[in-house]
Design a protein that fits this description.
- Keywords: Cytoplasm, Methyltransferase, rRNA processing, S-adenosyl-L-methionine, Transferase.
- The strands form two sheets. The protein has a five-stranded parallel sheet, with helices on both faces. A five-stranded mixed sheet has the order 6-7-10-8-9.
- 41% of the residues lie in helices and 17% in strands.
- The protein has 291 residues and is an alpha/beta fold.
- Helix 6 runs parallel beside helix 10 and helix 9 packs across helix 11.
């Protein structure tokens, strides 16, 4: 099917809210069911209406006079009642994220929650997801994983955020701005240790797709002074029970103390090595006094 070619008329959809996953890069990653829903829904809503219109044009899905409502973080309070009213009238409503699966770092959560609370049917047309695509190509364990979203923008909140995740027994998955990827990798070294396996996935499924794999230390060094563009997913292997002998502890603290206070360095190393904070703090205090 080419641009401008119209898909066959679809059967009417049953009333309900349909969350439609859309490509994260390659337009052909859209599913046939997603196209059917977009072609048949009574009401269309999207995080970015231009992106959805272009996707429908590529695949020959005609709007047929239907309006595409913008629904995003800045207008959700105003637009959500309109979509709920359409559901109340027995209409089918399709919501598409800008890219990937709705509700994953996407404003659709409140819409889905409100529809469920009102007793309407909520259905998913599964498809592309940057989280799962990155996990698939990372080479890291996939038996258990945690999507942690975007790290906080401020240094103090980000440090606490990483420390709380330090001992989670799962592959950790983060979204990050390309402008901050070098910084977050350096902070992960201080909080998790430099030997943890990790991966940085950039522009997945797009023309300049790139996957960098290695230890956190290697990746932090590689991205430290590098100008990065595109969508970024960072993955970090679970804690492996590092050797917490005295030499390992002191080496980790010496490195952490280079950029953090005694308290913060001790907290980060305690998480990374799985040791009691009080014990690590006493060693950190002594190292700081000896300098």
């Amino acid at each position: 099917m080419t641009i401008g070619e119209t898909r066959p008329q679809q059967r009417p959809l049953a009333a309900g809210l349909y969350f439609v996953s859309t490509p994260i890069g390659a337009a052909r990653d859209i599913t046939l069911r997603a196209l059917d829903i977009l072609g048949a829904a009574d009401v269309l809503a999207a995080e970015d209406t231009r992106t959805l219109r272009h996707l429908m044009e590529i695949h020959g899905v005609a709007l047929g006079g239907r309006q595409v409502l913008a629904y995003h973080d800045h207008n959700g309070e105003a637009v959500r009642p309109k979509l709920l009213r359409a559901l109340e009238e027995g209409k089918s409503v399709a919501y598409a994220s800008e890219a990937g699966t709705p509700l994953v770092a996407d404003p659709g959560f409140q819409l889905g929650r409100a529809a469920i609370a009102a007793g309407f049917a909520v259905l998913a047309a599964p498809g592309p997801s940057a989280v799962l695509a990155a996990l698939t190509v990372s080479g890291l364990p996939s038996d258990r994983f945690l999507f942690a979203g975007f790290p906080p923008p401020t240094a103090g909140a980000r440090l606490k955020f990483l420390q709380e995740l330090g001992q989670v027994q799962a592959t950790l998955i983060f979204y990050e701005s390309p402008k901050r990827v070098g910084k977050i990798l350096g902070e992960m070294v201080r909080c998790f240790g430099e030997e943890r396996q990790a991966a940085v996935c950039r522009e997945l499924t797009k023309r300049f797709e790139e996957v960098s794999r290695g230890t956190l230390g290697e990746l932090a060094h590689s991205f430290a002074d590098r100008a990065v563009k595109g969508e970024i997913v960072v993955l970090v292997d679970r804690a492996q029970g590092a050797k917490a002998d005295a030499e390992t502890l002191e080496a980790a603290l010496v490195q952490a103390l280079q950029g953090q206070s005694v308290k913060d360095a001790a907290a980060a190393v305690a998480v990374a090595l799985g040791l009691p904070r009080r014990e690590v703090y006493q060693v950190a205090l002594k190292l700081a006094e000896d300098e």
